[in-house]
């Protein structure tokens, strides 16, 4: 059995081990398990049943991870994306006064379009057309973005009315828990200890128990909530998508998920060293996996599903094969029944891992041609735009809009791929839809 697994996932060719891949999958799951609790909380604001969304989140994430691992053989996990779930609840349902069932129908329609453009390889063509410099910028920008998420979640960075953000209070115990985890993880990484990120997270949990900053779980096993309140609601309300306003909502779901996922896939592929001649091998299968998960999620009852940036934690531990993603998927299934144990994985536990992974991904900055201003300007906007707008897709939009302008100004019109001109106009439309 082990030999078959090693053969299918090409464990030996990738110079990894089954043990390392499973550890990487576990690390990825621990890093992103918060979505099991955050997503139901955000979507319940729209009136959706919290328990049903919890189960839908777990199942759609598991399906996407397993498909990504088995079909595309990438160590990339999927789950309902943050940001777009807030758009679902607060902008569409609460802001526009649209019933959540209709909004879910919008996600379903967007996922069908997603699958169609994947089948016709439009998504693959777009990803392959992105210049290598911008791909390095995307990878680096994602690194800064997730490091910022870690710093914020761990309490080291907080909001500040005078300066927008500022240093968090060092009188807060949980902030010191983050600092402890960061120092331990940094030392382990410098010493090149295998599984250093995971060990750092485990050590942080133990210290949390000892100090009382992390409460011990009240139980171990619990039944998974019923899917009945949300299951098939989106499908049943497709007929409600009958106004221009609702089609704009569908288009927004499509565009945000498209570029969030594309950017995340490129960034993670760069981190893991999968890119070859500026192309991502098996990208079509990876895109098929996430689009299928998005469709399943809309049927089960959750906002759009896509590649999850926290996969970078598993990659940093050494995950290089689809076995990592499959492990994460199986843990999502188990997570439905062992949810009390997940309560120990606080933001202070995952924060150090995200910060260190940000350091690793930021190494792509060295590969950008900074001496050429036509490349440096759009690349910089991508890198700095992601953390400052708190959005992968918005950061990409800023850079992609400037790219053809700076290239034409430099007299390099012929070096611009035709698809990049198309993306220029798409992103202008994208920014207009989101900000008007």
From TrEMBL:
Give the GO cellular component terms, alphabetically.
plasma membrane
> Where mainly found?
membrane
Q: Which UniProt keywords apply?
A: Cell membrane, Membrane, Transmembrane, Transmembrane helix, Transport
What is its membrane topology? Multi-pass membrane protein
Task: List, in alphabetical order, the Gene Ontology terms for molecular function in this entry.
Answer: purine nucleobase transmembrane transporter activity
The transmembrane residues are 21-39, 51-72, 79-98, 104-122, 134-158, 164-190, 197-224, 244-266, 287-309, 315-334, 341-363, 375-403, 415-434
Q: Where in the cell is it found?
A: Cell membrane
Provide an example Pfam family for this protein. Xan_ur_permease
Q: Where does the source fall among the domains of life?
A: Bacteria
- InterPro entries xref list: Azg-like (IPR045018), Azg-like_bact_archaea (IPR026033), NCS2 (IPR006043)
The answer to keyword Membrane applying to this record is yes
Q: Which family does it belong to?
A: Belongs to the nucleobase:cation symporter-2 (NCS2) (TC 2.A.40) family. Azg-like subfamily.
For this entry, the protein name equals Transport protein
Q: Which organism is it from?
A: Dellaglioa algida DSM 15638
């Amino acid at each position: 059995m082990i030999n078959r697994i090693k053969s299918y996932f090409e464990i030996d060719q990738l110079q990894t081990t089954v043990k390392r891949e499973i550890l990487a999958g576990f690390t990825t799951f621990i890093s992103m398990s918060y979505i099991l609790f955050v997503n139901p909380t955000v979507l319940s604001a729209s009136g959706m049943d919290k328990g049903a969304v919890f189960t839908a989140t777990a199942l759609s994430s598991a399906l996407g991870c397993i498909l990504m691992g088995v079909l595309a053989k990438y160590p990339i996990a999927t789950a309902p994306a943050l940001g777009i779930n807030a758009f679902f609840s607060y902008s569409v349902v609460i802001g526009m006064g649209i019933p959540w069932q209709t909004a879910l129908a919008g996600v379903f329609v967007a996922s069908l379009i997603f699958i169609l453009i994947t089948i016709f390889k439009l998504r693959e063509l777009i990803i392959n057309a992105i210049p290598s410099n911008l791909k390095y910028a995307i990878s680096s920008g994602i690194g800064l973005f997730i490091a910022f998420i870690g710093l914020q979640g761990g309490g080291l960075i907080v909001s500040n009315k005078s300066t927008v953000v500022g240093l968090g209070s060092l009188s807060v115990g949980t902030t010191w828990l983050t600092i402890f985890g960061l120092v331990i993880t940094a030392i382990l990484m410098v010493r090149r200890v295998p599984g250093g990120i995971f060990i750092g997270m485990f050590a942080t949990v133990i210290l949390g128990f000892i100090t009382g900053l992390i409460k011990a779980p009240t139980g171990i096993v619990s039944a998974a909530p019923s899917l009945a309140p949300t299951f098939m609601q989106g499908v049943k309300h497709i007929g409600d998508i009958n106004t221009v306003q609702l089609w704009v909502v569908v288009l927004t779901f499509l565009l945000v998920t498209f570029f969030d996922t594309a950017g995340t896939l490129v960034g993670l592929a760069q981190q893991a060293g999968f890119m070859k001649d500026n192309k991502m091998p098996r990208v079509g299968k990876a895109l098929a996996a996430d689009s299928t998960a998005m469709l399943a999620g809309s049927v089960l009852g959750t906002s759009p599903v896509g590649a999850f940036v926290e996969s970078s934690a598993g990659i940093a531990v050494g995950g290089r094969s689809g076995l990592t993603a499959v492990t994460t998927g199986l843990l999502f299934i188990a997570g439905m029944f062992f949810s009390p144990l997940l309560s120990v994985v606080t933001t202070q536990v995952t924060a150090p891992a995200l910060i260190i992974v940000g350091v690793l991904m930021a190494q792509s900055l060295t590969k950008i041609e900074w001496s050429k201003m036509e490349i440096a300007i759009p690349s910089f906007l991508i890198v700095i735009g992601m953390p400052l707008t708190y959005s992968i897709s918005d950061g990409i939009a800023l850079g992609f809009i400037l790219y053809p302008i700076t290239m034409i100004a430099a007299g390099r019109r012929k070096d611009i791929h035709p698809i990049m001109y198309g993306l220029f106009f798409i992103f202008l439309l994208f920014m207009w839809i989101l900000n008007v």
